[in-house]
Hints:
Blueprint: H1 2-36, H2 41-57, H3 59-72, H4 79-95, H5 99-110, H6 118-134, H7 138-152, H8 158-174, H9 178-195, H10 198-214, H11 218-234, H12 238-254, H13 258-275, H14 278-294, H15 298-312, H16 318-334, H17 338-352, H18 361-377, H19 381-398, H20 401-429, H21 437-480, H22 490-503, E1 511-518, H23 521-528, H24 530-547, E2 553-556, E3 561-567, H25 571-587, E4 590-592, E5 595-597, E6 601-607, H26 615-631, E7 637-640
Parallel strand pairs: 6-7
Antiparallel strand pairs: 1-3, 1-6, 2-3, 4-5
Amino acid sequence: MMHIQQRKNAILAVLQSLIVxxxxxxxxxxxxxxxxxxxxxxxxxxxxxxxxxxxxxDPTQAxxxxxxxxxxHENNVTALQRSKLQIYLAENYLLNGEMTPAIELEKQVSVHxxxxxxxxxIDYLLVQANIYNSIGDPKNALxxxxxxxxxxxxxxxxxxxxxxxxxxxxxxxxNHDEIRAIDYxxxxxxxxxxxxxxxxxxxxxxxxxxxxxxxFDFEKAIELQNKALAYFLKNxxxxxxxxxxxxxxxIYLKLSRSQDAIDNxxxxxxINYEVANPxxxxxxxxxxxxxxxxxxxxDKAIDYLNLSNxxxxxxxxxxxxxxxxxxxxxxxxxxxxxxxxxxxxEKARQLLANIxxxxxxxxxxxxxxxQAQLAIQQGNYQQAVSYQQAHIELSAQYYNQVRELSxxxxxxxxxxxxxELEKQLLEKNKELNExxxxxxxxxxxxxxxxxxxxxxxxxxxxxxxxxQYRLRRKFSLLANTDFxxxxxxxxxxxxxxxxxxxxxxxxxxxxxxxxxxxxxxKKINDNYGHPAGDLVLKAVTQxxxxxxxxxxxxxxxxxxxxxxxxxxxxxxxxxxxxFRIKSDIEKEHIISDGQIIKITASxxxxxxxxxxxxxxxxxxxxxxxxxxxKEHGRNRVEINE
Length: 641
């Protein structure tokens, strides 16, 4: 019996041992399987790098990739990993103009903010700021950006700070504070230049062009945008190429270069035929609609507005929605559909009411101008005067001469800093000659002393030169500008024309002058008063500047007399420009004290010919043609062949 009991005990011991071994093996197996179904940080870094490559080509590709990735590995990633992927996915939705999914992702990430590391939290704040800005909440957008800035400045990561400064610059561009925008663009440019990331530098230059556009330095804006575009074209970045074409088209619209705007929009459509991004189709169509409005091609403007309306319901950026409504209202006004125009402008006004006026100056100005036009067409001239007065006050508040001079100063300072930075980068890339250690030690004290002396002398000279430059610039502006209209005065335009004449070769006859004079201007002063006369002169100046080309020069040479200098231009081309100015002046409605003032002008055109020996002879010919126009009934263009 004892023997049998011992055998039973032995068997039980063996079974217990087997059970324990089985449990341990099972536990280890399950842990191994579990380890294989979760991912480490290297996996996440690889996925984000892949998504970034796709985003550079087209954010839509990155959206598809990240959406599938999150769906496939929903149960295998940690909350932190999921948040990082969701933040980058939201960034790409915002690039694509898709606000709703970006907002939903931001809400999901906000639940796990306590898990985010500082770098990821900064990325989250940039996404949050972008969303706030797009829905017309600049105050909360700036709060998020400043929090991101404070966090980024705690670290020594140039790339991180560069991204935050670039986002701040974009915010200030978007909200009409170009001075701060340029300052932050410079900071971002300096930081990113250290890392040599040419793509990010191109992005900064593309966005920086918007600052110069709002500063009315369209030449600089086009230069920067074309520089960025050249990089995008070289690297075949379709999405970014279309963005640059879009920004160039918007600049050309402001310059009334309507056909150039249409050409750039058509380039967008051609590229987007392959990319198939609906947002770019919309922006191309709405640009072409606006350009045709400028060209008075109403039927084409309506056709392209209808094409853009297919995508209008997908717009979520309140600023773009308002701009679309403005174009729609302009078309309705031209069709004299006043009921619809009034309804459209009311929709725009309600949207605009939610945005602080300091963050929507240009939109406010456009609304008031359209409301004034509507009131005129309705015959409500008292209301029209009220709107025009509001337009004048708003313009004076935000675009006075002091602010323009301040902006120009900051532009000059930025350009100087940028040149200095580029020189430093070039010097950094040069190889330094090797010197013997002993020779360096012997000359070190002498070199430091000499360098300090040179630097002090250079600093003194720099301060003196800068002060002299500012004084010369100020006096030059006062001496060469007509105080009332802001264009060149008689001395400046005559000197400029004389210089261009002297630079012409003897056989080059393509140099033309347009002299024009306002008809019955004395009666305007007598009947309406001198303030009304001043208002007329300012309006005629603005009309003429819009009608001439970038290469032409306009000046006021008398009380109501103007001169346009057209180099490399025949009399046929100049006559077309003269007729364009004449036609635009005829169409203008100027309201003073509730009264509508109609104005016309007479024009004289003269081209350089071989028998003329001086610029003064050509000016006499143009004056003679102007006199002929006056004799033949006024409001006409005469050519002195």
